[in-house]
Structures are given as C-alpha cells and as structure tokens.
Design goal:
By secondary structure, the chain is an alpha/beta fold. Among the domains are: 169 residues, inorganic pyrophosphatase (n-terminal core), CATH 3.90.1640; 107 residues, Diaminopimelate Epimerase, Chain A, domain 1 (Roll), CATH 3.10.310; 110 residues, OB fold (Dihydrolipoamide Acetyltransferase, E2P), CATH 2.40.50.460. Helices cover 41% and strands 19% of the residues. The chain contains 19 helices and 17 strands. It is globular, with a radius of gyration of 24 Å. The model has no long low-confidence stretch (mean pLDDT 93).
Length: 569
C-alpha cells in the first residue's frame, strides 16, 4: 500500500502569486508546491525563453573542447562521434553530427552494439572510426570512465573529447577535454542535464567561439533552435529532472515536434498513431523513447540514428515501422521476464525479507533487463538489479538509495559497473550471483529502513468534483511540461461513488465517477484492484482532456484508489 502525502505549501506565497500574476488558485498552488514560490520565478516558469538559458561556457572543460573543435574545423579534419545506444546517446549523436556538418565538417558517427560491445567507448568502435581517417573523436553520453580506450586512441594521435553526464571517477581520463556537469571543479550547477543537454551547451558555446573568431564572416550561422526537438526527446527519455534549462529545452522542443518538421520524429509519431499536434512530454517518454530504445536493446542502435537523421519521410516511416515491431517484441520479452522474476521473488523468503532485489538468469535478454528492473521497483518498492545473459545487468533505485554508491561498496564482487544514483549498468560472473546478492542485500540493509520501502505518492491537495472542468485543465496546462522532479498535478477526491466500470484489454479499468455531472475515469493497470472501486472510494487523480474521434471530454486518470477505511492514513 502506498502512502499519500500532500505537498506542503505556504498559503501566503500562493496568495501572492494569485494577486501579482492574476493566475488561478490551483495553478498557483501547483507552482508553489514545486518550489516556484515567487512572482519572478513563476513568471519565468510560465513564460520560458531561450534567453533564460545559463552561460554554456561555465561548464568545466568547455573552453578546451571549443578550441580543439575549432582547430579541426579550420584544418578540415575528419571528426568521429561515438555515442551510446540509448535514446540520450542516439539523440546526442544526431545533435552533434548535424551541428558539425552545418559548419562544414565531415563527420562519421558510430554507436556500440549492446550485445557484442557493451556500454561505453569500445575498441571496436575506435577501430571503425580510425578506418575513416578521423583525427578527433567526441564521445557523447559515455567516455568518462574509458581510461584505457582513450589512452590507446591518444597514442594513435587521435584526440578525444568526452561529453558525459554519468558519475565521474576519482581521476578523469586523459582526454583533450572532459565536459561533465558532475566534475567536482564544475561550478555551473548543471547536474540535472542529460547528454543531449550537455551537447546542446557545447553547440551554443562553439557557435559563440567561432563567431568571435570571425568564422561566420563568409558563411551563415547555424540555427540551433532546429535541434531542440532532439534535445527534448533525449531529456525526457533519460528521465532527468525536468527543471530549469531542461524544462526550457522540452517546452521549446515540443513546439517543433508539434509542427512535424523532422521526418524521423514525424514518422515515429505516425507509427505510434499519435497526431503531431497532440505530442506531450508523456508522448516522448512513453511512446517515442521506447521505440528508439528498442533498436539498441534488440538489434543495432544505428537504425534509430539513421531514422532521426533521415530527410525522406517515406524511408523514415519504413524504419519507424521496423522500430515499432521491435518495440512490440521488446514488450513481449519484458512481460515474460517480469513474470519469471516476480515468481522467483514470491517463492523466496530471502527475496521477500531483503531490502533490495537482485535476480538473474542467463536466459534473460540483456537488452530489456533495465526495463524489467524498473517494473520490479514498481511492484516491490525496493531497489532492484536484474542480470541477464552473459552476466550483463541493469538496476533502478528508489528515493534515498544511491545505486552507484551501493555498487562502489561491493565492487570487489563485480566485473564492472557504471551509472548514477537512480540507474546503473553492471557486469558480473553469473556463477557468483549468490555472492553478489548477499553483498548487495547486506549493503541495502545498512542503508534502508522498513519505512523507506513504503512508496510515497505526493499530491496537490483535495479537490471537489464541482471544481473539475475544461477551464481548470487549461489553467493547469500552463504549468506543463511535467516530468521527474516536476511531476504532473495529482489531487485527492474524497468519498466519491463509482458507477459501472469495465475492464479493458491490457488490464485497465474504465468507468464513471458519479455526481451532479458524471466524469469518466481511466485507471491504467488497475484491473487487479477492482474491489477498491466499489462503494465509497477515495481516488488520487490527474484531470485531463481526452480527445477521441474529434470529441473532447473531461477525464480523470486514476493514480491510486482506497476504500474509505484505508484513507485515514
């Protein structure tokens, strides 16, 4: 059972926003509950603009990176880009390659094969780029721990620039430049950026560097705005905090996506049967991101890169349909592995009593173990690591448990690992699984208490049925886009009566909340909790507008439900 907690707000600050900005009281409460608690903060939040973006030169390593890239451009050097195989890595690779090509550079992009090369800068990838004759390689969304590979490249007179956002090692690699917001000497306070955001900062800084050097006296300056659709996609899909400049990226990027300007993204939307003008941050995270990730999980991420770089819609749509099929295959694999993992957990006293979950089988596809780990966190409320074929695994965490630090504490049991507080990749010897399980469980037992494993759902207070209408949704929409660290509004409806409801395919429920004006509801994945929808019920809901066949209706998306007896907690 999840614990419902109301976000605390100072009513004086809510009233101040209402008075000075003339905004709806619920919108004001939403903003204050997310730390947007002064008129100037709220004005900037509600009217995000590109001129609010911080100075990109403040990122440590930026000056050295711009200097080396400018020299490569002036000398006509071939430049390699080595990215990661997930959405952040793919979008970052497209952003950087398109920008450098707009400056006249000859760019070669390669991504690792998850199954044969694994995560990070690989020797095979270096060889591919070396054969193209590159003298400079930029790694994106990886590279900060690739000491040996970078030393090898530098010994071959191939310079390396690292652009990453993962936890940095004690010693940085011997690269020409390392741009990573997590560097201890980086004062920019940009730890919330994903690789796509860091790459966009590099593009801004390099364009400024070249402008001051007179590079654009004989050529047009590239328009960076056109890259924000990719920045938005990478930012949402990597589940980084949707705050500050990240929110600006996503808001402006969604404006581009809604115009259907990039054939690859338009093709992905069409394959998912989503109209471009209806795209939201949720569309990027739940529909486009998984389809792009499917390429790197089951096949080769280069197909996703080719899709996003495509200028031919018909070719892009054919590729998008292939990714759609791969994503369906991925979902079926995921469902099977989740069922097997949950069965193992249910049948094991050790798993049930542990503060953290780690399961593994050599038959599990390593391309989907990260998603399975997320599902186990949702089901158990515990930090979870899932190991697949070849001992390659992924982990996801809960608030208050730093997963990367946990792996550092048991690193003598591991063959390798990387990541950050919320998500990690790990490589173990499957023969040593029990040893790793014991070590991981012992560490979790030292760091967590039983109450830490009770999921908390924060909400924005109670709301009455009569307050729910289309006008309220329009006011709330001004606070979008929402995401991690900036969650969408959730309200409590107390003691409502549920009319007839039915189970939909996929384990969802659909019905009506009764009142003077019945309101439709949808409860995703709650078919196994139908008993909670009988009698007088408390609901946690997000009000929204549902558009179907040209008709707009008010709808409540149910996040949780409780009988009245349980709702006193």
């Amino acid at each position: 059972m999840r614990r419902w907690v109301e976000r605390p707000v100072e009513l004086s600050k809510v009233n101040q926003l209402i008075a000075e900005l003339d905004i709806h009281r619920i919108l004001a409460r939403i903003l204050v509950g997310r730390g947007i608690d002064s008129p100037i903060k709220a004005k900037n939040y509600l009217e995000p603009a590109l001129n609010q973006l911080p100075d990109p030169d403040a990122l440590a390593g930026m000056s050295a990176a711009c200097s080396r890239l400018a020299r490569a451009l002036l000398n006509g050097e071939k430049i390699g880009v080595f990215g990661d195989y997930d959405v952040d890595g793919v979008t970052s690779s497209v952003i950087l390659s398109e920008f450098l090509e707009s400056l006249g550079a000859q760019v070669f992009v390669t991504l690792p094969n998850r199954l044969t090369e694994g995560y990070g800068l690989s020797l095979a990838g270096l060889e591919r780029l070396e054969k193209q004759g590159v003298s400079l390689i930029v790694t994106v969304d990886c590279g900060v721990t690739a000491h040996e590979e970078i030393d090898l490249a530098m010994a071959k007179n191939i310079d390396i620039i690292v652009i990453d956002h993962h936890t940095v090692p004690v010693t940085l690699p011997n690269a020409v430049a390392v741009i990573n917001p997590h560097r201890k000497d980086c004062t920019r306070l940009a730890e919330h950026l994903c690789a796509a955001g860091v790459v966009f900062n590099l593009c801004m800084a390099l364009r400024k560097y070249l402008r001051e050097a007179g590079f654009f006296k004989t050529r047009p300056e590239p328009n960076l705005l056109r890259l924000l659709d990719l920045v938005a996609l990478g930012t949402v899909a990597d589940v980084v905090p949707l705050i500050e400049d990240n929110r600006i990226f996503v808001q402006k990027g969604l404006e581009l996506i809604k115009q259907g300007l990039r054939p690859g993204i338009k093709a992905l939307l069409d394959a998912a049967k989503i109209e471009s003008h209806k795209a939201t941050a949720g569309t990027l995270g739940f529909h486009l991101g998984p389809r792009i990730n499917a390429a790197g999980r089951l096949e080769n991420a280069m197909s996703a890169l080719d899709l996003l770089r495509s200028r031919d819609y018909s070719k892009a749509f054919a590729m998008a349909e292939q990714l759609d099929a791969s994503n369906q295959e991925r979902r079926e694999l995921e469902k099977q592995i989740v069922e097997e993992a949950l069965a193992e957990i249910a049948g094991s006293k050790e798993h049930q009593e542990a503060f953290a979950i780690i399961v593994g089988r050599d038959s599990w596809h390593p391309g989907v173990v990260g998603i399975v780990a997320s599902r186990l966190v949702e089901k158990t409320g515990k930090p979870s690591i899932v190991i697949g074929q070849g001992g390659k695994g992924s982990g996801r965490s809960i608030p208050g448990f730093h997963l990367h630090e946990a792996l550092c504490a048991i690193e003598e049991c591991l063959l390798g690992f990387g990541g950050h507080a919320h998500a990690v990749g790990v490589h173990i010897d499957l023969a040593e699984l029990e040893l790793v399980q014991d070590a991981f469980r012992d560490h979790a037992a030292q760091k967590l208490k039983p109450e830490d494993l009770v999921p908390v759902v924060y909400h924005d207070g109670e709301i009455a049925l009569e307050d729910l209408d289309e006008g309220l949704i329009e006011h709330m929409a001004r606070a979008a886009p929402f995401g991690r660290s900036n969650p969408e509004p959730v309200f409590v409806l107390r003691g409502v009566k549920i009319g007839e409801f039915r189970e939909l395919k996929g384990g969802h429920l659909k019905g009506q909340v009764l009142g003077d004006r019945p309101i439709e509801f949808i409860a995703f994945g709650m078919a196994d909790r139908q008993v909670l929808f009988a009698g007088s019920t408390d609901l946690l809901v997000t009000p929204e507008i549902n558009e179907w066949l040209g008709k707009r209706t008010l709808q409540l998306r149910v996040k949780d439900a409780r009988t009245m007896a349980l709702s006193q907690t």
